[in-house]
């Protein structure tokens, strides 16, 4: 039986010792056509294992509707890894963090305001069980004990950073076992007392997550788990970025030195990340410490293989360290993926959002401005409109509480923006005798993916007041922006500043290649290539371009649609052959 076991402080596989050298690649952040390329680069660097999370919301976006095709074809990704001779670590915890929308939890859980997350709460566990009944049987044939490449599986993810419900953790462990999981189970937590106390499970091997000071981290882990193999399950060799902040980097020699320190003592390691990929669509997460901070579209992470698959200096520095412990032979890499500059794309057609609402969704009448989840909406935008009688003197419009960013319109005229993270912003106006229509366009910029604030419903979560008076009876349009087939684009539409609009353009492609959409001159919005949501852009950076993998293009005519909230300097964009992440800062 090909099973990973523990013999004292040593991992054993196929009756021989093994030091796991793993790297994280998230299949859900990479187009399937490039899975083999990224995995071959992992193996070429000297790694013997690939690790991936499994995001629940990617596979069950709506309750009872499961998706395991295309970018969600988890089984195919694992099979490719196995065919390349790689072992696989999977982390199917209901919660994954990962700077991913809601930490991988599905938004529809929040339709029930009484729902408790990540604890022994039966309504929550019933949803987990239904998902696991669909997911786990797909993984069983891929376990190493059944001839597949999966050697171990995670029970929950960094749970000690969140809670201490041991009954819940035992329930998850038992659920995996009763569904036929017989490979090594593990937990992973930061090397702090409260994290290990809250996250460890009796009888389950524990690993630690950190980015530096491995001697200290392993010493703390050994206090709680003596005479067991040491492993850093998340070696943070890079970092993620928030909008409006710098692009984080870490020197390659520093990363290599910390790895060397771990390998010298025989510890196993999983690089988080080896290749980061992209938060396509609306799947970026957010953090909330002192304030809400959404993550950018790029998940480059400054790691060994860049967002578009390029080998970095860090790759060579790490491979040099691994070669001290493993006979790697000559470096053999797959053929480089072509990049092309396709030039300027003229966005020749437009249509305004506020004049297209009924083409995008059916209006809902509601006494109160309900959040997205209670209306069956996961992501995107939502528009609330109501009639306000007059006359009234100038007063402040109070949103309780907006999540996450709201543009305010009075009779279609833009009055200002209210952002969740900026409490000093306010919008005030007076009302004439005939009254006005107030419209509030709210953008869900990503649910919190870590910490105590993960219960993060979107839209307007409490109510709206003009002055001290609550406003009732709203018309609501859910705007997931996943279907533009009913939009009526027209040439040369005149738009005002801060008038949300869709722009459409076409360009020709003779040979498929990767390219990068340069959004310089545009303000904030979302871009789509041939109907595929590339993700968000925002002029505040650090990201200036959106990555377009070649497989998303077509030979011949291609369609680009941009939803712009505030306006652009000119209705054109550039498709160039390089990525731009500005304002670098070392971590």
TrEMBL record:
It holds the Pfam family BetaGal_gal-bd. The keyword Hydrolase applies. InterPro entries: B-gal_1-like (IPR026283), BetaGal1-like_ABD1 (IPR048912), BetaGal_gal-bd (IPR048913), Galactose-bd-like_sf (IPR008979), GH (IPR017853), Gly_Hdrlase_35_cat (IPR031330), Glyco_hydro_35_CS (IPR019801), Glycoside_Hdrlase_35 (IPR001944). It catalyses: Hydrolysis of terminal non-reducing beta-D-galactose residues in beta-D-galactosides. GO terms for molecular function: beta-galactosidase activity. The keyword Signal applies. This is beta-galactosidase. Belongs to the glycosyl hydrolase 35 family. Keywords: Glycoprotein, Glycosidase, Hydrolase, Signal. The lineage of its organism: Bacteria, Bacillati, Bacillota, Bacilli, Bacillales. It comes from the Bacteria. Residues 500-558 form the Beta-galactosidase galactose-binding domain. GO terms for biological process: carbohydrate metabolic process. It is an enzyme of class 3 (hydrolase). Residues 10-324 form the Glycoside hydrolase 35 catalytic domain.
């Amino acid at each position: 039986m090909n099973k990973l076991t523990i013999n004292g402080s040593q991992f054993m596989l196929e009756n021989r010792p093994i030091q796991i050298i793993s790297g994280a690649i998230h299949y859900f952040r990479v187009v399937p056509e490039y899975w083999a390329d990224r995995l071959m680069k992992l193996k070429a660097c000297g790694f013997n294992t690939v690790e991936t999370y499994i995001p629940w919301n990617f596979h069950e976006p709506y309750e009872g509707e499961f998706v395991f095709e295309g970018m969600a074809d988890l089984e195919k990704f694992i099979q490719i890894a196995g065919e390349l001779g790689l072992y696989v670590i999977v982390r199917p915890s209901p919660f994954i963090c990962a700077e991913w929308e809601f930490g991988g939890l599905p938004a529809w859980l929040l339709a029930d305001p009484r729902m408790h997350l990540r604890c022994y709460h039966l309504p929550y566990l019933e949803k987990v069980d239904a998902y696991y009944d669909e997911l786990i049987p797909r993984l069983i044939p891929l376990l190493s004990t059944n001839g597949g490449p999966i050697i171990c599986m995670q029970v929950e993810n960094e749970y000690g950073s969140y809670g201490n419900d041991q009954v819940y953790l035992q329930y998850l462990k038992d659920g995996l076992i009763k569904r036929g999981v017989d490979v090594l189970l593990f937990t992973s937590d930061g090397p702090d007392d409260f994290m290990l106390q809250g996250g460890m499970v009796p009888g389950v091997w524990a690993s630690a997550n950190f980015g530096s000071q491995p001697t200290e981290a392993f010493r703390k882990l050994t206090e709680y788990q003596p005479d067991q193999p040491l492993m850093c399950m998340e070696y943070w060799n890079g970092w993620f970025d928030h909008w409006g902040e710098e692009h984080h980097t870490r020197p390659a020699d520093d990363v290599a030195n910390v790895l060397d320190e771990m390998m010298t003592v025989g510890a196993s390691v999983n690089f988080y990340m080896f290749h980061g990929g992209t938060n396509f669509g609306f799947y970026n997460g957010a953090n909330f410490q002192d304030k809400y901070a959404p993550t950018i579209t790029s998940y480059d992470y400054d790691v060994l293989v860049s967002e578009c698959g390029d080998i970095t200096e860090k790759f060579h520095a790490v491979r040099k360290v691994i070669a001290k412990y493993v006979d790697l032979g000559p470096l053999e890499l797959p053929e480089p993926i072509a990049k092309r500059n396709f030039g300027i794309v003229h966005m020749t057609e437009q249509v305004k959002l506020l004049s297209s609402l009924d083409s995008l969704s059916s209006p809902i009448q509601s006494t109160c401005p309900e959040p997205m989840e209670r209306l069956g909406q996961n992501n995107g935008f939502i528009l609330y409109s109501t009639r306000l009688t007059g006359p009234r003197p100038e007063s402040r419009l109070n949103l309780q509480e907006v999540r996450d960013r709201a543009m305010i319109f009075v009779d279609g005229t833009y009055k200002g923006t209210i952002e969740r993270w900026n409490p000093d912003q306010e919008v005030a106006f007076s009302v004439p005798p005939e009254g006005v229509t107030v419209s509030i366009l709210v953008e869900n910029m990503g649910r919190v993916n870590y910490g105590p604030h993960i219960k993060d419903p979107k839209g307007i979560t409490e109510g709206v007041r003009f002055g001290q008076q609550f406003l009732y009876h709203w018309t609501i349009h859910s705007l997931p922006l996943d279907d533009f087939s009913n939009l009526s684009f027209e040439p040369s539409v005149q738009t005002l500043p801060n008038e949300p609009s869709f722009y459409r353009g076409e360009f020709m492609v003779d040979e498929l290649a990767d390219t990068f959409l340069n959004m310089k001159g545009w303000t904030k919005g979302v871009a789509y290539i041939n109907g595929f949501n590339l993700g968000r852009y925002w002029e505040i950076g650090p990201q200036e371009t959106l990555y377009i993998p070649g497989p998303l293009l077509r030979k011949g005519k291609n369609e680009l649609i941009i939803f712009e909230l505030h306006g652009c300097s000119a209705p054109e964009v550039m498709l160039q052959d390089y990525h731009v992440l500005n304002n670098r800062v070392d971590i």
